[in-house]
Inverse folding.
């Protein structure tokens, strides 16, 4: 079975919670807020997770709308990670500035549930971890 790399990132930090994230073409930072012991130099890991889901949703919906020649106007995705007892869930609200008919709205909701990041998160992703100490 052929393995395809969909994305890669390297995360590094020397001290504290601030981290530098390097991808193929970009560098961003992540940290914890001050109230959690960080220095707030970037979004928290959960904020980055929500940002990834929101960006993928917006890009996928925009691509779909362009193929259908639909005008979405401005597209706004609002996300929240919520925890109830032991369970967690993400609340995603999609807003468009253009009016859409009921059929278009239903189709966009259907497409949102099929975005690549949604499909990766929904069933859970197996994580294989290897430790290389003293390298």
């Amino acid at each position: 079975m052929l393995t395809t790399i969909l994305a890669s990132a390297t995360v590094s930090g020397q001290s504290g919670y601030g981290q530098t994230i390097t991808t193929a073409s970009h560098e961003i930072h992540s940290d914890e807020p001050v109230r959690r012991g960080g220095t707030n130099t970037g979004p928290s890991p959960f904020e980055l997770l929500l940002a990834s889901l929101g960006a993928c949703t917006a890009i996928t919906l925009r691509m779909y709308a362009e193929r259908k020649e639909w005008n979405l106007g401005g597209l706004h995705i609002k996300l929240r990670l919520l925890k109830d007892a032991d369970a967690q869930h993400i609340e995603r609200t999609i807003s468009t500035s253009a009016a859409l008919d009921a059929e278009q709205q239903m189709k966009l909701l259907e497409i949102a549930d099929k975005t690549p990041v949604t499909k990766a998160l929904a069933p859970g992703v197996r994580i294989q971890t290897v430790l290389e100490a003293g390298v």
Q: What stands out?
A: Residues 81 and 87 are 11 Å apart (CA to CA).
